[in-house]
Every structure is written in structure tokens, then in C-alpha cells.
Amino acid sequence: MISFECDYNNGAHPKVLQHLLETNSKQSLTYGFDEWSDSAKEKIRNVCNAPEAEIYFLSGGTQTNMTVIDGMLQSYEAVISAKTGHINIHEAGAVEFTGHKVIDLPAHDGKMSAKELSDYMNWFVNDESTEHLAQPGMVYITYPTEYGTIYSAEEISNIYKVCKEHGLHLFIDGARMGYGIMSLKSDIDLKFIASHCDVFYIGGTKVGALCGEAVVFPNKAPKHFFTTIKQHGALMAKGRLIGIQFDALFTDNLYLDISKHAIEMAEKMKQLFAKKGYKFFLDSPTNQQFVIVPNDKMIELEQQVMFTHWEPYDAKNFVCRFVTSWATTDEDLKILSEIT
Amino acid sequence: MISFECDYNNGAHPKVLQHLLETNSKQSLTYGFDEWSDSAKEKIRNVCNAPEAEIYFLSGGTQTNMTVIDGMLQSYEAVISAKTGHINIHEAGAVEFTGHKVIDLPAHDGKMSAKELSDYMNWFVNDESTEHLAQPGMVYITYPTEYGTIYSAEEISNIYKVCKEHGLHLFIDGARMGYGIMSLKSDIDLKFIASHCDVFYIGGTKVGALCGEAVVFPNKAPKHFFTTIKQHGALMAKGRLIGIQFDALFTDNLYLDISKHAIEMAEKMKQLFAKKGYKFFLDSPTNQQFVIVPNDKMIELEQQVMFTHWEPYDAKNFVCRFVTSWATTDEDLKILSEIT
Amino acid sequence: MISFECDYNNGAHPKVLQHLLETNSKQSLTYGFDEWSDSAKEKIRNVCNAPEAEIYFLSGGTQTNMTVIDGMLQSYEAVISAKTGHINIHEAGAVEFTGHKVIDLPAHDGKMSAKELSDYMNWFVNDESTEHLAQPGMVYITYPTEYGTIYSAEEISNIYKVCKEHGLHLFIDGARMGYGIMSLKSDIDLKFIASHCDVFYIGGTKVGALCGEAVVFPNKAPKHFFTTIKQHGALMAKGRLIGIQFDALFTDNLYLDISKHAIEMAEKMKQLFAKKGYKFFLDSPTNQQFVIVPNDKMIELEQQVMFTHWEPYDAKNFVCRFVTSWATTDEDLKILSEIT
Amino acid sequence: MISFECDYNNGAHPKVLQHLLETNSKQSLTYGFDEWSDSAKEKIRNVCNAPEAEIYFLSGGTQTNMTVIDGMLQSYEAVISAKTGHINIHEAGAVEFTGHKVIDLPAHDGKMSAKELSDYMNWFVNDESTEHLAQPGMVYITYPTEYGTIYSAEEISNIYKVCKEHGLHLFIDGARMGYGIMSLKSDIDLKFIASHCDVFYIGGTKVGALCGEAVVFPNKAPKHFFTTIKQHGALMAKGRLIGIQFDALFTDNLYLDISKHAIEMAEKMKQLFAKKGYKFFLDSPTNQQFVIVPNDKMIELEQQVMFTHWEPYDAKNFVCRFVTSWATTDEDLKILSEIT
């Protein structure tokens, strides 16, 4: 059965696998000190225009979020997220498990508003009982968001400005970074990201790798961050596994090229649904599309294609998520077109 | 200067202090195994009609909340609270510090709705990604709430019913329990509380004691709860300090009598403000009153009386909290009347 | 029955209780911002010759240890303790509960050796896998120790020197500080302590108070330590309760005077046991004495006096701990003399 | 340069990589619900003779230890380990990070003694202050140990017996499980392991995989263990990555065959060193060998072969660890022979 359920239900991009194959017989240093990790880091520094960046490879998104957030925050600090942020819902309380409160602000199609962030911080610093509250230490946003939407350059700049006013770190979760940057609506690139936050990660798992996220500190990583990674169970003994994959992904622009392909497939899919009269739950310019499907049609579709049942829209319709990826083919879309 | 800032800005009720005095020269067992703690527990069991209840004395509210919640939850579980719940705001992230997420539901004048709790749980159990979410394990409500409001017997029964349907513990934070029960609007007593939740605490700090909260498990405490208390830094070496105080508070109905006094003072204070044309932010039937005060009047009042600056009401007015307690006198109200 | 079980089985010293009594009817600021807390802090600063010291009052020893240690360490750091240190055994894993490893070094009658600390740190910094280990961030010692022994001025100086060489905080747990300083063998005072560590606490619970420990940062407290206290459930709403007690204890040298009394009683008790031919488990110059008692004699004694069963000495004898305090009387010793 | 530094400095065994290659183009369910994970689990159940076993795939050793230990312990419980246990030293305090104390018992060439475990537990249950101590909830042993030694069937049986007497879980860390079982000295197999503990894991990272450890609960996993995995950041989105590798490793006895090869290489290496007159730090029957090397010879060797500098033996000699693996070749040994 074809699947539009998510962007991590395939193996690796062939070039990624190829690089694992061609390097397999070589011995290497462990824990990420291998030559391919070094090479991948250098390539990422270049594309980010961040020659001093410190880079670490972790294996998955939740792990990365909990390790980065706990690693950068003091233990009395909290992280601010949009209410729909991944760390606030779908990570089983992993951030709280490390001891930190997630303070949620309203989400607007998945996005935080710089104005509301500023209002919150102004309330916070002026409240009589400020010292009785968890101290905000970081702002967490996702690019693109859990709803496929993206921040404009201006929106990110404004959020970062508020962060700097209040001494907050800005962390951008880029589990689907490529799909955001290659969106037709995007006005930013990795250079912009690297110069407008304190830490971000470039997601590999959802963009062509078997596993792996590249955490980038454009300036400086927290002291003993390597130990923090180990302490969180996030240190790969064979660090090369992730280094090799990112080395392939950042060779010849592969990461962004395959992201672009996913966007092209998503645009075609949007047109396909629109033509048949489906409405969208919101306007997503990336690879996740949220389609309003009548309940009986949804049951029929389930027999032929996999997708995510997001949430009820009303008594008669359901919001269904259809996701493209680097691996989506025109053939997949053709079948989807025939059955929707 | 007179103060209506809170209900814990006095020393102890004279009878409480008297009991400390008259027992001072006796040696005792430590860690709560003294005779007065035993006596206090027995008196609380009686008034709660809970002969099997297990009772522990802790020193303060945040400490009690974090210890009870962490002690009853499995480490993968979260606690559900109204958005304005004390644990969700004014406890510096103490619950998250113990590793648990606080899931917030809407607050209605400080109260959780049984219907919204039920809706949330129904969504939770039916969601595709349920196992990726923090598992709700407990519901936390305050009686009275942070806004001075109280649940009716029916409302608590309904919440407890939802809890039992979904295997959730119900925990009632009674930091101001006496002031809730003695409210003119209350239709419950300690017997009702003890038979409609899994654990609750009777606040001493705000109702006549120097410190101390009595945690009551009407049926059974979690295994090794004594060790859990120690592990949370909440075990008093001289447990007698709290036991003696509760022994006094639960002799001759002192706890409820002094609570009743605070309510009488609060009712007089309400009339006093109402007569002068002040409006209230909400209708509170307990000892905390939230009065809307013009900004310039507020600045004037600050010179003569202490109160809490709660939050801005609009551009020209502020919500100010005035609190009575067991120690409030008619003289205090007379002065308040003259200056407002 | 008379009791030599511990030094916290009495009420408060009469002058402490008297101060609670005479201040009881006054209203005050909360959370430790009351006048008596201010006064007590000033008196402690004076006696410590530490005019810039930041002081916080917490309610008990385990709570103080976990809050200070967690508050001063980065989350990837561990604390080094003698194997017999209180935090390593009798605190139910409270330090680990806050996420930090306790690294144990050998104990010599309860004391850590500066040499062994230095050796450990030299091993640590030279080990190939240093970054895979919890990073030592603090050294924890007790004065006096759990075995009643005390460090000399030279020993503390040497330990502090190693700490400074390796960037470690030194924390001195003074749950029984008075009994250490007033020991006939002691060559230090509070001024010495305050200038030879980064943080220490002066125990009140075991030296005349109902509860309370005074945490002293001779130079600077960690940022937002007030919030950290709240987050650990250790903030007293009626902070005055502890402030008033320390205000009394540090008036007219009361704290040290009553400590001296306990030492005098301990010296008499030692002679009493020695005269009757008992041997000691170790040579303690403070208020805790560890007496080797034949098993059958121990069973006989239990009928007439309370003490602690420390540990088996050999098949026929047991180590029994007898403790004096500020409240021990000559009459108590007379009875003890008759029955031993 | 040839390397005997560790057993995870190679890529994957060719058959493991081959299986990744041949499955790469197929779509699958995520989070470990793919067909290859199912197949691998079934094969492991068969070889363990544990048809009801619940199996989870995690990515690395420290992660597995912290997740299993935290997942099985109540929050007031501690884990008992030999002093040299991996969780007690080389995991950066990851277990303590999850809130649990590691109680250490003496290590005898890396092994815990059933007798000493029994003695400890008998002391624990009889101690007067038992409820003030972290409650032991689990025993952790490694097979083989960090020193390459292995427990006999009788030794494991005895430890497991003590565990059952005291209600402790037994957890066997099998990061190098294959190298233990295939040791010439081993008298156990996976069936024995599966019937003599409550949980264990079969290490893949060090035995032919790129990453991955198979956690086996022979009877029942803790409730919501999937959520616990997610909460610890240990859930792989593309769970297939590990499932496919274990599917290969447990096809046609590959896992044990390649382990056997490593043992054969280790035996040859031992003879090689012995012939040249080197002494061993201890007698290891598995793939890790601890050789006593004169300091000047060590410096010479470093130029031509990689190994681990374990610890100083005495002023003139160093303990050096040489490790074989599934990937070690006769050619490697030939070179080693020439230079030692």
C-alpha cells in the first residue's frame, strides 16, 4: 500500500547508503571523532557560513530536543514554546523529565508570535512573584512547524530580538529543516538560521538519513556538552554512523536537492486535492498537508493509502495529514489521484 | 501598617503556640513518631471519618504538592491541572523538577470542569499517538482555588467520577481547606473530601500554624512514602513541631472555628468594598477577595495598607487581592474602611 | 525513659521559644523577608566576619544538602563525599534524586583525606575517558562528621586548596556545627569556616531550634537561589519561623554556649563509660560517642535508656551511639551512670 | 594503523549492511513496528527459548542502561552494582541523572559476589534507619564484565536467588553478550540468561551492528515501557534501522558465529603476548585482554598500534587493554606480533 503517513517511513537516500557502504571496511575513531564526522561538520559550517560553529550529531529529534534544552538551561530555568510545539505534546514529557517546565504561548497555525512572547516576558519581569516562578531561559520554535507552516525572516528576527532583550537562548528545531528552507514561500536559508539563533538542528531522520540530527551551535556550545550528551544516553559509540550520513547529505547540495523534490511533490499533491474539491485545514507551504476529508471517504481511503488521522474537524469531517518526502514518486501521486 | 496581603503573615494562633510551650520540655521520638503526631492523626481520622487513613505531616504547600505528586505518579505519568493551578504557576516548576509534566486544562474562575476533563481523556485514549504522550496519572485541584472560588459537592463528585473511569488519582490541594469548608457557599465537609479523592492535604500554614500541612491518604499511602518524603528533603527531624500544631488545631474544633472567623471577616470586607462602589474581579465566597481598584487609588492605598497587586484589569484599573485570615480583626477592617 | 538517642529529641531551647512567643502577635513580610530574619542574618555575618555573606534559612539537613548541592552544581556535575558522608547514605538518595552522582572517597573515621582527594582529581583529569565521566564540581564534608570526629584547621585548609586547584566548590555540612567548634580539640571557629569554603550551613535543628539551618555563602550565592529553594519545596511561607529562632540563637552567644554545654556533658559521659571499662569504637571529641557494648548488656540497657544501635562490632559486641545535646542534664548522666 | 582499541571501531558486519541494502527501498511502519523488527524479535525469542518475551530495540549501551533501570525502578529505588560496573563509572552519571542512586558493592575482577550481595541486603533490612536509605530495587551485573571476566552459571544462579529473596530485579548488561557466551570458559547460553534474570540486553553495537541493543524482558516489560523509551529520548523514528540489523545478526547464527571468531582471535592474541613474556593484569577469557606493558615499551607501541591506556600498574608499567572483535583478522595479529 502506498503511504503518505510521514516522512520517515523509507530507508535512506541511496547516496547516503552508498557512503555507508564505501566506508564500511575502514576502522575509525569512535564517539564522533572519525574523519567523516569531521568532514560533515566542515561542510555544514560552510553552508551555514559559520566557521566557528560547534557541531554534534545525535540520533533523533526528541533526544536532541531534551539534550540541547537541558544542556543549555540552568536547572531553575524553563523553556517557552508554542502550545503546539513538539516538545509540549508529542515527546512524552521528555523535557520535563530533565526537570524543566515548558511554558506554552498561543500557537498560530503552529507559530509563536514575537509580540506575545514580548508581552509574556514583560509581564514576567514585572510580576510581584517573579522569583516564585520557573525562570524563562530559552525560546523553542520549530522550522517548519508541526503544522507545516514556516516563519518569515522578519518573524524569526523579531523573536530573536525579544530573546536578546531578555537574555533568552533561541533554539530552532529543524527536524524538517530542508522542507522549510526549500518551501516556495521561504525567504531564509541556513546562513540566516545560523545567524539568528543560539542553537539549531538540521534534521536528518526525516530528510534522507536512517537516523541522525546535526546540532549546530553557531558560536559556542555549552561547557562539557559532550558529557551532557553521554549523560542523556545520546552518545553514539559508532559516531561514524551519523557522521557518514551527514557527510553524504552535505555533499553536492544533496540535502537541499532532495528537500526540494519533496516540496515539488507536495505542491502537486495540493493541486491534486484542491482540484477534487477538498479543503485544507490550513495553508501549509511545506511537505505536510492537512486535508479535510469526509468521515466516510476517510474510511474508504484507509483501504488504499496510509496517512495520519490528525484530529476531528467537525461531526462529519476529519483532518487527515498527508506527507511527502524525498522518496515520494510521481507514481505515488498518480495512485493517490486515482483513489481520492 | 495593616496588612491584607495574605493569610500567612502572622505568627501562630495562640492555642497552637501554647501547645508548643506546654510540650516543649518533654523528650520524644523523632521523624513524626512522637505522641502528639499520633494524637493529631487520630483526631484528623475522626473528623474525616476515615479510620484507615494514613497521614503524614509536611512543612509547606509546594513541598507537599511535589512530594505527593511525585510519590503517587509513575515516572512516565503527568498530572492534570487547571491552567491557573498553583502547581502550574507559582511553584517555580517544582513538579517538573521531579520529572512530571503538568498538563493544563482551561480554568473557570480557577476551577477545572469535569466535562472538559472528560473530553480531554476521551481525546487522549483515542489519539493515534497516545503512547508518544506523557500518560495522565493524576488530577490536581485546589479547594478553595487560587481565586478563592470553591467546587460544589456535585462538581467534585463529577471530577472524581471521571478520574475513576480513567484510572486517575484525584489530589485535592487544601492549602486553605478551612476557608473553603467554612465558606457560606460550601456544601461539603472533611468527611466528604476524604471520601471523594485519593489524597488531599489540610493546610496549616495559612490556617493558624507556623508551618505544616497534613497529607491524608483516606485509604492507603504509596509504598515507602516515608522514604519518598526523605528523598524530597521533606522529612522533619523534629516531626513533633508539626504534630503538636495539628494536635492543637484539631482539638475542640479550633481549625474550623478560626476558619469561620476568617470567612466572617471576609464577608464584612466584601460589603465594605461593595458599599463604596468597588466592583469585584470575580465572586469569591472565601477569604481571598479580588477587588478592581483604579490605578491612582491603588497607589494611594499602598501607603496605608498592604495587599497583593494581582494583575492589570484594564488601562485604568488594577485587580488587587485582599485576604483575611484567622488573625484578622474588626479593628483591621475599621481602618480599611476608613482608607478605601 | 532517659534518651541519648540523638540531639533532636527535645523541643526548643527556652530562649528560642521565648522569642517565638514575644514576636508572635506581630505581622511580617513572608518568605524570609521579615525583620527577624534580617536581624539573624546580620548577627551571623558578624560572627562569621563575612559582611558580604548571603544567607538563606532552610528547614532541615537533607533538604539543605540537596538544595545547596543541586543549586551550585551544573547538571553534568557530581559531588565528592567521604563514603560515610550523610549525603551518601542516610538521605534516601536525595542528591541523586536531583540528578547528581555522589562520588565516594575513603572515609577515615568519617573524614576525607586531602591527599586522596588530590589523587582522585589527578587521576580524573588525566584519564583518557574523562569526558565520559560525571564531572566533579563540588567537595562535601561534614563538620563534625557522622562519627563525631572533626577536621583540624590544617586539614580543612588542605582540602580547600585542592578544591581551588581543580575548580571545585567546597561545601561544609554543619548540621552539628556548634558541637564541632566547641569541641576541646577544635582549632577553628565560624570565621575560619567562612573563609575556608564556598558555602556551609550552621545547623539549628540539632542545636536548640525546633527546625532550621542557616545556609551561608560567604561571598556570593548562585544566581536565582531563591527560585531554586522554591523549586526544591524548601521555601517556608512563614520564613520568620526560622529567622526568629536563629535571631535568638545568635543573640548573646547562645548558639555556642549551649553547644559548649553539650560538649561538657559528652566529656563527662566519656569518663563515665571509660571508668566502667567500656571501650570506644573511635575517639570522638564531640557530642556523639560510639561505645562498644556487649550484646547482652545492650539488651539490658535498652530497657532503661534510649540510644542508637549503630552496627555490630563483632559477634559478641555492638557499637552503640550515645549522644548529648544542649538539653542533656547532669541528672540524665547520673541515671546513665547507675545503669551502665 | 592497526587498532585493538575497542570492539566498535569498525563499520557493520557485511551481512548486516547487506540486509540494510536489500530492504532499503521498502516503506515500513515506524517506531519499531516494521516487519524486520518483528522478525528479529521472533528469532531472538526462539534462541532464548522465551516465547513470551517482550523485546525493544534501543540504540546504545548507556541509553539502554538508563532507560531500563529507570523504567523498572520505582522513583525511591536504587540499583546495586559492582564498584567497577559501567553504570557506576563510564556513563557520566546517566543513572543518577534519572534520579536513582547506584549502590556499589566490591568488585572481584569486575564481578559481584552473591555472598556480599546477600550480606548487604541482610544488613539493609535489619538496619534501624532502613526507611532513611534509598531502597534497593535492582541488581545490575555485566556479562562479560568491564574486565572481560564472566560469571559461571552457578554464580548467576546464586545472585538471582538472592534477588528473588529480597524482591530485587536482576538486570544483565550484555553489551558484549556474544563474546561472553562464546568464551571457552562460558557454561551458559542465551536460554540460561533468559531464565535467570528479569531483563537483559544483547549488545549489537560491539558485535557487528552499526548501532543497537536488544532489550529482552523474558516475561513482562514494565507498563508503558514504550512511553518510557520515548521519554528518555531513546525511541528511533526509523526503528527499522535496528530491527533490520538484528534480523541479520540472528539469521543463521551470525551473532554467535562472529562472536566466536573474536574469541579465537583473542586466544591467539593472549598466546602471542604470553610467548613474549608479557604478564596479564587478570585472567580474561573473552575479547578484552589487559596486558602489563613497561612504560617505555608502551610509548613505542603507540606509534604502531592503537589500544587503551587503562591504568598505571606500578611506577614502571602500565595496564594496556587490547580488544579483538568480529572484525579482527589474522593479518592484524601478525602485525601485532611483529611489533610487540
TrEMBL record, chains A, B, C, D:
Names of the cofactor(s): pyridoxal 5'-phosphate
Specify the domain of life of the species encoding this protein: Bacteria
Q: Which UniProt keywords apply?
A: Pyridoxal phosphate
Q: InterPro entries from the xrefs?
A: ArAA_b-elim_lyase/Thr_aldolase, PyrdxlP-dep_Trfase, PyrdxlP-dep_Trfase_major, PyrdxlP-dep_Trfase_small
| Signal sequence coordinates | none
Query: Which Pfam families does its entry note?
Result: Beta_elim_lyase
Q: Which residues form the Aromatic amino acid beta-eliminating lyase/threonine aldolase domain?
A: 30-275
As for family, the record states:
Belongs to the threonine aldolase family.
Report the protein name in the record. Low specificity L-threonine aldolase
Q: What is the lineage of its organism?
A: Bacteria, Pseudomonadati, Bacteroidota, Bacteroidia, Bacteroidales
